[in-house]
Predict the 3D structure of the following.
Amino acid sequence: MASPIAGFFLQVSERIMLTNLLATTFPWLLVAFGCWLVYQFLRQNGRILLRLEALEEQVAQLGAASAAQAPHGLDPGSAAPAFELPDLSGKPTSLAHWRGRRVLLIFFDPKCGFCEQMAADLAALRADGSEGRPIPLLITTGDPKENARFMDRHGIRCPILVQQKDEVSVQYQASGTPMGYFLDEEGVIAAPLAVGGPDLLALAAVLAPPAPKAIEPETAAGGRDGEVQKGKANRGLQASRLRRDGLKAGTPAPPFRLPRLDGGNLSLEQFRGRRVFLVFSDPGCGPCEELAPALEQVHRGPGGVQVLMISRGDLEANRRKVAELRLTFPVVLQRSWEVSLLYAMFATPIAYLIDEQGVLATDVVVGVEPIRALLAATGKQDQAWVAEGTGAYAEVGAT
């Protein structure tokens, strides 16, 4: 029988051996556990990367599909498909009814939010096509009574025809609303498919070309007289439809004459000999309101630059906004986008600096901060010239 002392030493020896074993194997267990964690991490990240790659591929496919499905519309120069539809009272009317007049054909839906956004602008258009503008013709969808209530509520008075579903839209390859075409007097599509309110309203502002002068036989060489005149008539329309990125520095500033908010008319020509800081604005535009104090500061400064704002929309809404912001520089009003069309951009706020000769001194400047930067640079330059007491700006300030 083993003595108690021998048993005690045996237990101590076993514990020491166990401790040594743990001390030897535990680090390796930690290493193994760490390797397992790294493996799981890499495995999980590999799955994530695979999913991301799959998502990127899906997004690329969706992008390609969207590009492929983007509405192209009928080609300019092709004949507008004929149709006959009832008006809001049920009377059948055909497109041929407007032959000999220029028509802005608009596919519309009163349940479309984008259509409702442009309703006030449609109400402001001249339904009879006077002043050389096209006749707006709405092709709407849905119940005639609901359409009539919508048009009455928004004050839209232009001709309105109702299709049952999309039978006419399909003929014109107009897959959504609002979309439309500019048709010339001969019922020919004169511009590419316009998508969205701004593009349609810009086409609504296109004036008829002046009456063509008699063409000498040699002038029309190489083509029939009608083709020559038609090409001249449509050239400006096509150019205005395609230019949406603003005018470039060095371009003569397009002239305009517009009503002032405080009465009377004002033309750009009145400021010839002075630099003009021309700003396009809108009373419902938040960034435009944010920009207004900087414009007023430059206007009240010692320099010779003239701040001129072109706003749009309702006269009283503009007057309220000007009074609220305490603006003292001239503000004129375009009916829709007719002057924006001339300056090749349908957005607010945008700005141009025009030199003394009526030439654009800068490319179009878009957004609050870029316009503020241009204002600051213009103001510093004016202050330097006034301090020197030389140059056209010191003379203007003294008059």
